[in-house]
Amino acid sequence: MSSDSLVIIPTYNEKENIEKITRSIFSLQQPFHILVIDDGSPDGTAAIVKRMQGEFSGKLFIEERKGKLGLGTAYIHGFRWALKHDYQYVFEMDADFSHNPADLPRLREACQSGADVAIGSRYVTGVNVVNWPMSRVLMSYFASVYVRLITGMDIQDTTAGFKCYRRQVLETIDFDRIKFVGYAFQIEMKFTALQHGFKVIEVPIIFINREQGVSKMSTNIFREAFIGVIQIKANSWFRKYKQKPAAPAAIPAGIKHDA
């Protein structure tokens, strides 16, 4: 089945989740394709995906990399692959069900309805997080407050990793100038999209902490984000951002448009 929508799922040791998340996405009424970017998982995650490819031929793809190269580089690898294969809507999504597959059509609809980037937001309608310790909730929430203060972005969930991009956004952003790999990568992509003049909106979701597998969060990732936000803002003072192309002018009623 053809699709204009690609879900990119980076993995490292996600054998407990990868088959279930894949089947959940493929069970949706809206057709999505999936690209797994696996960073050499020693637990056999890639082998599970390759076994399922026989069942989901033409819909499930995998790119294998040697070693843990970082979330940001995984997504950029996926973005390049998506552009090469002509997808119009490109999604970032975790493998661990913290992002609900049922929300994918809502993000796609937001981009179809005028957004250039749609964010699955935990904080746009309060704090919608389930099964996180209060310390983690507070750290995440105030991290977004800090990012808004430094960057000036009018986005409540600045570190969100559940997103839909219209193709034009990824064609415009220079991936070689995206420098960060953890939470700071998510911030940098949002900030860069806004600097290019793209419309970013937040779609409320409920974020559920993973039940299986091990979180990849670390103090180094938070440290990168804390320092990286200042670097992202400072670098923007010395950089020119190509503005997105203007929408074509509407053709007045009664005037024929010649192809």
From TrEMBL:
GO molecular function, a single term: dolichyl-phosphate beta-D-mannosyltransferase activity
An annotated GO cellular component: membrane
Coiled-coil regions, chain positions: none
Superkingdom in the source lineage: Bacteria
Domain Glycosyltransferase 2-like: 7-173
Pfam families the UniProt entry points to: Glycos_transf_2
Alphabetical UniProt keywords: Glycosyltransferase, Transferase
GO biological process: glycolipid biosynthetic process
InterPro entries from the UniProt entry: DPM1-like, Glyco_trans_2-like, Nucleotide-diphossugar_trans
Similarity field: Belongs to the glycosyltransferase 2 family.
Protein name: Polyprenol monophosphomannose synthase
Source organism of the structure: Arcticibacter tournemirensis
